[in-house]
Amino acid sequence: MTGGAGYVGSVCAARLVETGHDVVVVDDLSTGHEDAVPEGARFVRADIGEAAGDLLAEGYDGVLHFAAKSLVGESMVDPAKYWNGNVLTSLKLLAAMREHGTPRLVFSSTAATYGEPEQVPILETAPTRPTNTYGATKLAIDHAITSYAKAHGLAAVSLRYFNVAGAYGGFGERHTTETHLIPIVLQVAMGTRDKISIYGEDYPTADGTCVRDYIHVLDLAAAHLLALEHAVKGEHQVFNLGTGTGFSNRQVVQTCREVTGHPIPAEFAARRAGDPAVLVASADAAAEVLGWSPERADLTTIISDAWEFTRARG
Ligand code: UDP
């Protein structure tokens, strides 16, 4: 597993260990944390592009590829970091998998591959027109995976995450540069921030604020385990992962108030560049093909788990 010291990777690593898999986490700790690697997983601190060949020579039945640069804003001002860090590294990983005959790949793709949607909920067949470099690099990797599956018989699944939140078993969101709504709002509740700025109040939505589809990180991890089981040789399957329900930024802030009991002062600020008004997944394909259904889809549950993690870390 690459990137297993990061947020989503650490929860997936924990679930894989708990379900009896032998897990090796490769992570350069550029954004991850060594103490987020769960007990029972072997940890290798290395650059994936450099280490993949030697590691895969040991013989593995699959790779889960989480490692990536994932800050949308940064991707626009430092594209090389994203084209090299995401695409080049993934191409090296694919080459090493081919060389050593590693049969299966589950890749962390993103809703950002779609860009501004023409229709919601978003189907996997929707046009892919990313509006930022981060999404473009993830889409480029998806294309490369499709080619490898066809040409070399790789069994591949890309999972397009919508808005991941929540925590599991002491593993949660710990980004040094935090840009995501829920962890920022919880920082206000913790007293480490004064207020939340809600970006935009004049979107064409019911309450004027953006709508997003929040998925619990534990449900996301469950989908990865199912994807490993359902990967088919020579095929590249793509699934959206969200709950199919949207919540507005106002609703998120209000639910955080209810969960934390903190007043959470909020102000409205200018729209953030590149933010689509509504991003909601159709999760039907994941349900039908993978047999996946989210069990912690309720926003209060998602936020409560994130809050418990945030408070425990102090
Ligand atoms: N957002 C906000 N204030 C913040 C951070 C985010 O209003 O301090 C909004 C953002 O504009 C978007 C929503 O919250 O409408 C979700 O943003 P996030 O960065 O969490 O995820 P994204 O949907 O961009 O992947």
TrEMBL record:
Look up the EC number in the record and give it. Answer: 5.1.3.2
The regions listed as transmembrane in this protein's record are none
The GO annotation for biological process reads: galactose catabolic process via UDP-galactose, Leloir pathway
Q: If you read the UniProt record, what top EC class would you report for this enzyme, in one word?
A: isomerase
One of the record's GO molecular function terms = UDP-glucose 4-epimerase activity
Keywords, in A-Z order = Carbohydrate metabolism, Isomerase, NAD
Pathway terms, separated by semicolons: Carbohydrate metabolism; galactose metabolism
> Protein transport as a keyword?
no
Cite the NAD-dependent epimerase/dehydratase domain residue spans from the record: 1-242
InterPro entries to which the protein is assigned, alphabetical: Epimerase_deHydtase, NAD(P)-bd_dom_sf, UDP_G4E
Q: Which reaction does it catalyse?
A: UDP-alpha-D-glucose = UDP-alpha-D-galactose
User: Which coenzyme or cofactor does it need?
Assistant: NAD(+)
| CDD domains associated with the record | UDP_G4E_1_SDR_e
Its family? Belongs to the NAD(P)-dependent epimerase/dehydratase family.
Spell out the subunit comment. Homodimer.
Name of protein: UDP-glucose 4-epimerase
This chain's source organism reads Actinokineospora spheciospongiae
